[in-house]
Design a protein that fits this description.
209 residues; mainly beta; six-stranded antiparallel β-sheet; 11% helix; 45% strand
């Protein structure tokens, strides 16, 4: 009888311990970090100046960059927003170059654009290229080294550990030829309409190249 009582007592204690263990909340495994959004937009608009025969007008398009990335070199930071067609051929291409000497602590902040007539006064060099699909036409290129620019380039977030960059931009090139028409190779004079080119967009969690 004594052995039977001991066995029953031991079984009761084991059952109580197991029940208590099952009732204790188990730690929830930490959720994995969300995947980078890696989204970037390229909005292009051109305000045609009025002429003797044509009123002022605006042409525009909105694109989603297919190859957004940034790259940190020893002397500069480059943010590259490229839009490729279905064949993978790069069409619209926007490049921002921020020299290390002009970078703010932690990178976050708003930067002025380098512009003509003296590009050395600005902080960020800008280049926008829109290639023609025809081999007999020149690509359209605008930037700090060729045009008077207004606007800014802003870095709103930089995650150094995950190497992700976010921000926005607004660029206006004054009195240039329109990006939606192209100059034919070997043509005499440029008869395309003049106006102001506007670029704007945002980039979110761009990965380092």
């Amino acid at each position: 009888m004594k052995n039977l009582a001991s066995t029953l007592l031991l079984s009761s204690l084991l059952f109580t311990a197991c029940s208590k263990k099952d009732a204790d909340p188990q730690p929830t495994p930490s959720a994995p970090a969300p995947a980078p959004a890696q989204a970037a937009t390229v909005n292009v608009a051109f305000d045609n100046y009025a002429t003797a025969s044509q009123p002022a007008s605006t042409e525009s398009l909105s694109l989603l960059a297919t190859k957004p990335t940034y790259q940190a070199f020893s002397d500069r930071l480059e943010v590259k927003l490229e839009v490729a067609d279905v064949r993978g051929v790069v069409q619209d291409h926007v490049l921002f170059v921020l020299p290390i000497s002009r970078q703010k602590s932690g990178l976050v902040g708003t930067y002025t654009l380098a512009s003509q007539p003296d590009a050395s006064l600005g902080e960020v060099l800008v280049t926008y290229r829109r290639p023609s699909n025809s081999l007999s036409e020149y690509s359209n290129v605008y930037g700090s080294n060729t045009a008077k620019l207004e606007g800014s380039f802003t870095i709103t977030g930089y995650d150094a550990s995950r190497r992700l960059l976010s921000g926005s931009y607004a660029v206006k090139a004054l009195n240039v030829k329109g990006p939606f028409s192209f100059l034919s190779a070997g043509s005499w004079g440029d008869t395309r309409r003049s106006g102001d080119l506007r670029l704007s967009g945002t980039f979110q969690e761009l990965p380092a190249q």
